[in-house]
Design brief:
GlmM_arc-type; EC 5.4.2.10; Probable phosphoglucosamine mutase; Alpha-D-Glucose-1,6-Bisphosphate, Chain A, domain 3; magnesium ion binding; 7-stranded mixed sheet; alpha/beta; 20 strands; phosphoglucosamine mutase activity; 4 domains; 5-stranded antiparallel sheet
Length: 451
């Protein structure tokens, strides 16, 4: 694919390194393309996280929107869920969040939102790409250039409404680790207003992320684990760079397993739950105990959101801490996710006990560095390679990558990352030995084909 027609969008918007992939020139033309897609009129909500390049990109994308006829409703530095919420609340025509989510400081990106608070679908993104590459932008002329409005007052509405949706029964001691990202100001405030005793960690806004890498995984949460134990906290809540995700640390200082945490909240919702092909079997086990049903879809919050609407589901989430609460907004919301886990703990007891009661299987997630170009080549032959490697396959699912179910109940998924230069391996084995054998086999297949 030529640079002129290079694909812009991955599984979570546009994302890449600044000064190479994500530039002010790109943001300007994305703004023009979005405004053109909207017919050269309407209101577009714009927000950004704490990254050092955000104002550069915000100015560029707003210029593109204005030049092609749209008004800009500026939120300033806010979590991603607030952009989705404000787009819906204000009946805007679209929303733009400038963020690279959990990626390191040198990355940035652009994600687009619909009027209902749901991310743009792949078909919508494709239409934006066609306009972007054609450069056939709407030209309003000087007399019809859009206007800028500052709409910070909607932030107060978000705080009030998100608190009203939960009922935390007792005063919990909560440590909130915002990674110096977009949740740094709002998340601690919201937890306090919801009745929690809050201790903050990495809550100074800083796009260099000095306290920890913004990806909320065990390797990056050592300090949160220590603070939870040192302060005798009931729970720790860790966000990513834009606070659309969260993960917890229990009162014993253990980082919660994503699949178990998703199973816990899914069981509390009941009914029909949407998750992705990389989610573990513990979710199915937990839902079966309350008469619920699990429906799996492609990885990516927009795919989860679409399935929630199609299936009229009560809740949906990925085993990465990206959860969508359709009774509030169709945008993933790490702050509401954290509040709802805190609510469960306040009513049902210690988080460690609740998670230990959920049965799971040995789970391994790995990623192997692989260029975008090579990812396509390897994945094009992956179905064949895996079928040759395993002789006990009972099901093959190619909705997103290749997922095999084996006759002992073990399963594996190999899929290309949509946001980074990796091929991801996700699997569960009935025993640890079985899981490691599957992992080693998959790693060997991929590495043998990297050259």
């Amino acid at each position: 694919m030529s640079n002129e027609n290079k694909k812009l969008f991955g599984t979570s918007g546009i994302r890449g390194k600044v000064e190479g992939e994500v530039t002010a020139a790109l943001a300007l033309n994305v703004g023009k393309a979005l405004s053109t897609y909207l017919g050269g009129k309407g209101n577009v909500v714009v927000g950004y996280d704490t990254r050092t390049t955000n104002l550069m990109l915000e100015n560029a994308i707003c210029s593109g929107l204005l030049e092609s006829g749209c008004n800009v409703l500026k939120l300033g530095m806010v979590p991603t869920p607030l952009v989705g919420y404000a787009t819906n609340k204000l009946n805007a025509d679209a929303g733009v969040m400038i963020t690279a989510s959990h990626n390191p400081s040198e990355y940035n990106g652009i994600k687009l939102w619909n009027n209902n608070g749901m991310a743009y679908t792949p078909s919508q993104e494709e239409k934006i790409e066609i306009i972007f590459h054609s450069k056939k932008f709407n030209n309003t002329g000087w007399e019809n250039v859009g206007n800028i409005y500052h709409i910070e007052e909607v932030i107060g509405d978000y705080i009030d409404e998100i608190i009203a949706i939960v009922d935390i029964k007792s005063t919990l001691k909560v440590v909130v680790d915002s990674a110096s990202g977009a949740g740094s100001e709002l998340s601690p405030i919201i937890f306090r207003k919801a009745g929690c005793d809050v201790i903050t960690l990495n809550s100074q806004s800083d796009g260099f992320f000095p306290g920890r890498n913004p990806e909320p995984n065990e390797a990056n949460l050592k300090n949160l684990q220590k603070v939870v134990l040192a302060t005798n906290a009931d729970i720790g809540i860790a966000h990513d760079g834009d606070a659309d995700r969260m993960i917890t640390v229990d009162e014993k200082g253990r980082v919660s397993e994503f699949d178990k945490l998703l199973a816990l909240i899914s069981k509390n919702f009941g009914g029909k739950i949407i998750t992705t092909v990389d989610a573990g079997l513990c979710i199915d086990d937990a839902l079966s105990k309350v008469g619920g049903e699990v429906v799996r879809t492609k990885v990516g919050d927009v795919n989860v959101a679409e399935a929630i609407i199609e299936e009229n589901a009560t809740f949906g989430g990925e085993p990465s801490g990206t959860w969508i609460h359709p009774d509030f907004c169709m945008c993933p919301d790490g702050i509401l996710s954290g509040l709802r886990i805190a609510e469960i703990v306040s009513k049902e007891g210690a988080l460690s006990k609740l998670l230990d009661e959920i049965h799971d299987y040995p789970n391994i997630r790995e990623k192997i560095i692989c260029s975008k170009e090579l990812k396509l080549k390897i994945m094009g032959n992956m179905d064949h390679l895996l079928k040759n490697a395993f002789d006990d396959i009972i099901d093959v699912n190619t909705i997103d990558g290749v997922r095999l179910t084996l006759n002992d109940g073990s399963w594996l998924l190999i899929r290309p990352s949509g946001t980074e230069d990796y091929i991801r391996i996700t699997l569960e084995g009935k025993t640890q030995e079985r899981a490691e054998f599957i992992r080693d086999t998959c790693v060997q297949i991929i590495t043998d084909n990297l050259n």
